[in-house]
Amino acid sequence: MNNSSGLQITRRSAGNQQRSRNMAFPFQKKQKHRKLGDKAKEYFYLELYSMLEAGMDLKKALDVFINQQKKEVDKNLFQQISDHLINGKTLSECMQLSQVFTPYEYYCVQIGEESGQQLKVLNELALFFSNKVKVRKQLLKSLSYPIVILISSVGAVSFMMAFIVPMFTDIFKRFNGELPGLTRFFIALSGVLSKNSLLILIVLVAGGLGLGYLFQNKEFKKRVQQFYIRIPYVGGLVSGVYNARFCSSMSLLIGAKVPLINAIQLVKKMVDFYPIQTALIRVEEEIMKGHSFHSSLSKENLFDEKTISMIRIGEEVNRLDVFFEKLHQRFMDEVDMKSNALNTFLEPLIIMLLGLVIGLILVAMYLPMFKLSTSMGM
Q1: N or C, fewer C-beta in 10 Å, the chain?
Q2: Does residue 204 contact residue 189 with C-beta atoms inside 8 Å?
Q3: Once rounded to an integer, what is the mean pLDDT over residues 271-285?
Q4: pLDDT > 90? residue 358
């Protein structure tokens, strides 16, 4: 792609987006709807695809879908889309006016409408959100058991520090001898935790709320995401999740005949991962200078040699969408493998740490008794 054609595409895209905003402005209302989750969006696109493929017209398919909704807020949302459709809007315009769909989604639907591939785009969007939900479930499945063990471990140690150690402390007060250093440490720690339990709880809750607030800050979120990818093994797992999302998005857009520059611009908005977003900004600049897509990607550390090689082949045979789908499946398999390995590693590690802490507490509590029995010649 040469410079002039890339600039023309960018200008046309900017013009289309401005016209869309101007068109939408008079109709937009400041109504709040609940945010549609990935699972709800998957269901919406899949149902719409199935009914349109069966021969229903779009208005009737939306009416059937509205009747399937159990929550009033969802019925109102999709009824608003249906009302805009009756007033002559396209589905993509209706989605934009609803203010609950991302630019990525309604732009994909618009491309499908203009290219006559609406069914394909709806099916691909359903698959995209299905894969997104699948990745999240894989991570939750891999991390849920270690988290449960960790919480149980903290609970067990807290119980011992709150109830078991004070019982031994009352017994030790009857002895006049000096207690071992390890025993004094745990007794002091138990006293601090008992006297300041409410304050510690408040600090933990405030810390959790504070972190949630900080993650709303873009700069903080960027720094955290940059930190993620530097963590051994975990960085590869996190990068794999977002690389899979990147490849799935590119496959969908290129398969719908979206120009490469426009596809990259949309994916930047969809993939909420700062390292990939900044990499794609540089890649876009390189393409605008006349470089090939794969050579532009090769300058970024986030993309390995195998990924670059497959994209290069896809460019050469003009089948980038097919090769991006293969890369998406490859990243999904790697995420599954790494998450299972992480689970296998974390489970025994947490159990060993729990055993070590509980063992230290027990040794600290029984050590004075052993010392006393030794001094009495027993």
Answers
A1: C
A2: no
A3: 88
A4: no
The token duo for 167 is 């019982």
Instruction: Write out pLDDT tens, residues 208-260.
Output: 888 777 777 777 778 887 887 788 877 788 888 888 888 888 888 888 778 88
Full set of structural domains in the chain with CATH: 3-126 (1.20.81.30), 127-378 (1.20.81.30)
> What values do phi and psi take at 28, rounded to 5?
-70, 135
Two tokens at 44?
């919406």
Q: At what angle do helices 58-68 and 72-86 cross, to 10 degrees?
A: 170
CA distance linking residue 41 with residue 45, whole number of Å: 6
Give yes or no for a contact between 78 and 61, defined as CB atoms under 8 angstroms apart: no
Nearest to 129 by CA among 262, 231, 252: 252
* Dihedral sign (CA 51, 56, 62, 67): negative
% helix, strand, coil for the chain, step of 5: 80, 0, 20
339-342: list long-range contacts, CB under 8 Å, 24+ apart: 339/138, 339/139, 339/141, 339/142, 339/143, 339/237, 340/142, 342/142, 342/143, 342/233, 342/234, 342/237
What are the φ/ψ torsions at residue 34 (nearest 5 degrees)? -65, 145
CA separation for the pair 176, 242 (Å, rounded): 63
CA torsion, ordered 106, 57, 254, 259, to nearest 10 deg: -60
**What is the per-residue DSSP string for 198-250?**
HHHHHHHHHHHHHHHHHTTSHHHHHHHHHHHTTSTTHHHHHHHHHHHHHHHHH
Question: HSE on the CB side for 62, CA within 13 Å?
Answer: 20
Reference 247, options 197, 156, 311; nearest CA is 311
Residue-wise pLDDT for 2-32, tens only, equals 433 343 433 344 444 444 444 333 333 444 4
Asked if residue 133 lies in contact with residue 42, where contact means CB atoms within 8 angstroms, the answer is yes
The answer to whether the beta carbons of residues 148 and 141 sit under 8 Å apart is: no
Q: Characterise 123 by phi-psi region: left (phi > 0), alpha (psi -120 to 50), beta (else).
A: alpha
Q: Nearest 5°: phi and psi at 25?
A: -55, -45
